[in-house]
Amino acid sequence: MTLLDGKALSNKIKDEVKVEVEELIKEKSVTPGLAVILVGNDAASATYVASKAKSCKNAGIYSVVHEMPDTISQDELLETIKRMNENPSLDGILVQLPLPKHIDTTIVLEAIDPLKDVDGFHPYNVGRMVSNLDSFLPATPFGVMRMFQEYNIDLKGKNVCVIGSSDIVGKPMAALLINAKATVTVCNSSTKDLASHTKAADIVVIAVGVPHLLKGDMLKDGAVVIDVGINRLDTGKLTGDADFEDCKDKCSHITPVPGGVGPMTIGMLLKNTVKAARLRETREKK
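Now predict its structure.
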C-alpha cells in the first residue's frame, strides 16, 4: 500500500509557484495578486483564509483579505467584487464559501471576472472545463488530478467511482476524469446499493462529509482510494469519509486524512493565481 502524501506534494507545488512568481516579476514586472473575500466569522473559514494568506506570502504573491460582517447586503458584496474586477493589480478573486443564507451564492460567483476566477466556479470556466478546454479548474479536483500524475496512477480506461456530486468537488472531479478517458460512475445520497458501485471500481473518490462511510469490504483488491472528506469527531480527531484503518490493506494507494487531499487545495489555488497573472495582458485588452 502506497500512502499518497498530499502534504509533501503540496510543498513541492508551492516551491514551483515561488519560482514561477520570481520569473514573472523578472520577465514582466508582474507580481501576482490574490483577493479573498471572507463574509462572517466562521472559524473554519477564517483558519483556511489565514492559511491561504500565509501561503501567498511565502510564494511571493501579493494577497489581501477583505473581511465583511455576515450582515453585509448582497449589493454591497457585489460592489466590492466589481471594484476588485476593475483593480489591475488583482489577478485572482476568491469568495470564501459558504455565504450567509440571505446572499445568493450563484449571483456572487457569476459576478467575478472569469479571467480572475481562480476558484474555477464561474459558469464560463465550468463550461470550458467540461468541454476539455483551457480554463481555471476548481482547486480540490485539480489537486487530485495532480496527485494521480505525481504517483503515476493511470486513469485511461479505469473504472472510477465518484461518491458525492457537489458543484465544488464531485461534478468537476467527474468531468476531469472523463476528460482523462476514465469510465466514471457518480453516486449520491439517493444511490441504491453503493457498495455494488465501489466494488466494481479501480479508483474511488469520496467527498460527502460522512465519517467512515467507505469500508474495506466495499472495495476490490488493489483499489485506489482518494478521500476528500474531512470530519471532526466528538473526540476532536480529524477523520475522512473512508475508514482508513479498515480500507488500507485492500488498497494499492490511499490518501490519509489529514495530510492527503486537503493540503493540495491551496497549492493548486496558488497555481491558478499565477496562471491568472499571466493573463493580465489579456484582461487589460478587454
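The mean pLDDT is 95.
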